[in-house]
Amino acid sequence: MTAAADPGDERLGRVFLARVLEPGDETGGRWVREFGVGEVVGRLRCDGRSLPGVSTTRWAGLVARAGRAEPARDLDRARAVGARFLCPGDTEWPRQLDDLADARPVGLWVRGRPSLRMWALRSVAVVGARACTEYGTHVAAALASDLAERGWVVVSGGAYGVDGAAHRGALAARGATVAVLASGVDRPYPRGHTALLDRIAEQGLLVGELPPGDHPTPSRFILRNRVIAALTRGTVVVEAARRSGSLATARAAQRLGRFTMGVPGPVTSALSAGVHELLREEAALVTDAGDVVELVGDMGDLAPARRGPVLPRDLLEPAARTVLDALPGDRAAPAGEIALGAGTTQDAAIARLYELRALGYVERHGDGWKLTRQAVTSVRSGHRPC
Predict the structure, then answer these.
(1) What is the CA radius of gyration of the chain?
(2) Are 37 and 181 members of one domain?
(3) Is position 87 within any domain?
């Protein structure tokens, strides 16, 4: 038995299994839980006795993969790019990943200096469409920037579109960001984001389940999303069509009991249709970082009250506003008529009319009172007359 299959070395065993098992393999996760890493590695690498729950063909495929696995070499390749391998139970292991049960990663490759466990404690996922609109790019970048300025770690998938905008927004605010990849952490993907991902590795963290050199596949992108959902306190979907992979992240967050949020878009946009569908289910509607932090933050982290601008007319006392509303818009009216419309006495109405004249809302016309020319329109639009 080689060192790679030594049942007593759980770390090397998990590195070995990361090469043999696909991410999210619940059958493999159950084997590890029921038999232990050493037993699973031993059967795959040495004696070939199959484990329960897979066909003969599937087992043969796993054994073939096991024959090509070189965990010591994978660790060397990781060290060459400044990456490390985390196991469940390590000090740096984010314990919230344990919520994935048998779909929990057998280990994680991490590239970057900060502690993944500490960063994950105060993190939010911002995900969305790859082929996003200018609106999606703007919202994702602004949201991520504001979250970063508030001390939150922005987690996304490193892809084009919303993911890239979220990472850039966090970096622009000199904040923290984590990219969870569907490839090896030494193999930036997509290639067009090589510079961005290298910058994240320098200032933040690159995280992945796949060993060094491995490439992404469509299924690996989907399975990667469960890690994003489990790692963070909540997931925000900025822009997504009905078949967007980012919806898989949101639904994984829902299953895990995490907060699920969506940013609404134009009802005519197909790229917002998936978000709107999510909002009709159980997701919370958010429009900015304040809304997000109110959900995922600590008690007392409340978003500011939403209200329109305070207009000069709003500052009038209720009795004065009632008298102002009682004036006809097209003619002068005597004080008695105005008092009747305002439901007050004539003396009280006259006192308010003089107050309104001083503010520029009304003027005397003989024995009557009339709205000033500017006030005819400004009162109805809510603006104070000049």
Answers:
(1) 31
(2) no
(3) no
pLDDT at 119: 97
> CB of 87 within 8 A of CB of 14?
yes
Which residues make Cβ contacts (< 8 Å) with residue 57, sequence separation at least 6? none
Pull the structure tokens for residue 295.
């959900």
Alpha-carbon gap, residue 342 to 327, rounded angstroms: 9
CATH of the domain at 271: 3.40.50.450
Q: For position 344, which CATH number holds?
A: 1.10.10.10
Cα–Cα distance measured from residue 61 to residue 149, given in angstroms and rounded to the nearest whole number: 48
Task: Report the number of distinct structural domains present in the chain.
Answer: 3
Return the DSSP state at 261: E
Mean model confidence pLDDT for the chain: 90
Q: What is the sign of the dihedral through the CA atoms of 144, 146, 147 and 149?
A: positive
Nearest to 379 by CA among 315, 329, 334, 307: 329
CA–chain centroid gap for 143, Å, is 9
Task: In whole angstroms, give the CA distance from residue 232 to residue 250.
Answer: 11
128: left (phi over 0), alpha (psi -120 to 50) or beta: left
- Residue 2: which pLDDT band, with cuts at 50, 70 and 90? very low
